[in-house]
Amino acid sequence: MSSITIPAREAHHPNLRPLSILRDLPAVADLIEQCFSATMDSDGRRHVQDKRRAGNNNSFLKWANRVAESTSLPLTGYVWEEGHHIVGNVSLVPFTHKKHRLYLIANVAVHPNHRRRGIARALTIRAMQHAREKKVDDIWLHVRADNAEAIHLYETLGFVERARRAAWQAATDSHLQNLQTDIAITSRHPTFWPTQLHWLSRLYPDELGWHTHWNFSTLKPGFLNWLYLMFMDINIRQWAALRKDELLATLSWIPTGRGDSLFAATGERSDPEALTALLLQARHDLRPLYPTISLEFPAGLFDDAIQAAGFNPLRTLIWMQATS
To answer: Which superfamily, per CATH, for 166-316?
Structure first.
């Protein structure tokens, strides 16, 4: 197909229009599934199913139409329509973090039969214009690290990489054997907390906290926190890896209902074998609770150690921020 001609302001193109929550959600869900089904994880499939259900729920649609610009859900965006069929989509998700407003551009999808015509570019530019019309200059997106074409597109639009994070998953197994090593695995001692928090802050940066809602306050030692966890029936697990008296790494499990709640903390000089031993311990100890467990961690950092513990890579996402 030949390329389309995009006017100076993409909003003026006759095929590009705002998303209509009241009628577009099922068609957008179908498009997202068609474009990303080969790489979609369980959260992605859940997102598509939720979008379809929402599109047929009149009460939800009326509510969503009122709060689209104020709730952190993909209820705002733009579609590309040809022949009464939606063939392109971009979603805008508003966030507020520490009284600071920002937007996440998500679900940039173009039907396979309509690609390489500039539609994704036009949709992304219009999403960026929308954010700036709302007086928001902090615009983010994430893209799979293996999607070179999309990465190039976003770079040409002024996005730069801020973080690269990998998702891992492993089956739990109560018959796993401990790693043969001089590293001892113990429960997390309260005196380890300052070092643990320092490591966590580096590995799970506040820069991305607006989207991930990392909250490590439940890991803090102390009677009041213990009382809160008991009252809320939150059963966290924490392990530490030591060689003699030296703390090498920690691992925490905060139940979320999905099992994807492992948080590893390592220092710049931590022995990778310590993280392997911790993850093996978690796979063993968490077997009664979940069949699988997941970990998100900076990509390229301790990848071999994570794989050595039996974790398989799910995806690597590049977080990009607009600079122009």
So the answer is: Gcn5-related N-acetyltransferase (GNAT) (3.40.630.30)
